[in-house]
Amino acid sequence: PKTWAHNCGGSIVSSSYVITAAHCLDGIEASRLSIVSGTNDLRNDGAKGSRRLVASYKIHPEYKELDKCDIGIMRTQEPFVFDASTQPIRYSDTQVGGGESCTLTGWGYTMPIRIGRTPQDLQQAELKTITNEECRSKGFPVNPTEICTFTRVGQGACGGDSGGPLVWNGELIGVVSYGTRFCGIGSPDVFTRVSEFKAWLDENQV
After folding, report:
1. Starting from the edge strand earliest in sequence, which strands make up the sheet with 34-37, in order?
2. Which residues does the UniProt record annotate as the domain Peptidase S1 (predicted)?
3. The domain at 11-88+197-203 falls in which architecture?
4. Annotated catalytic sites, by residue?
5. pTM
6. Mean pLDDT, 10 residues at a time, the chain of 206 residues
7. Where are the domains of the chain?
């Protein structure tokens, strides 16, 4: 029987569409992708949730790895059924600045280096945004289509969190894009700034 492996996170934004990072999709056939929703537990192939196969996806046409436009959108073969455990999130059109509290969730590695397996239970971290100027001063050449967070050592994104949501005031503001080779060492994490791509996302949900 076919089994699935965790690759990336994503955010359900409507009954048939999920936002993720372009680098999570690049070069992968849609038939090899599926989405689990409605559970925080990935044990037994996420059996406690429901799985949707991916019919197709689009990557932003200006995507360049580790540089810009790291965003994509997937369309599911069957629509999600919204209930107490599965709901869409609104993607923000607000240009969020520095010093804002936000939440990152994902099934990424919990160790500084990517050893062992990713966790079976969904992880959550409370982070703060920093300005792009501050992010650049810490060695990350970010552009206006990106947003950074920087929090204490031991917190932040890691491998397996890619594509997942950065949430502010209940809205999706960021998609996990990249960070340093080692996780949680006190360096910024870089996210695709969703508000910069609202028009493209709107156009590609038809």
Report:
1. 11-14, 17-20, 72-76, 50-59, 34-37
2. 1-206
3. Beta Barrel (2.40)
4. 23, 70, 162
5. 0.90
6. 80 98 96 92 76 97 91 98 96 96 84 62 89 95 94 74 94 92 78 97 92
7. 11-88+197-203, 90-195
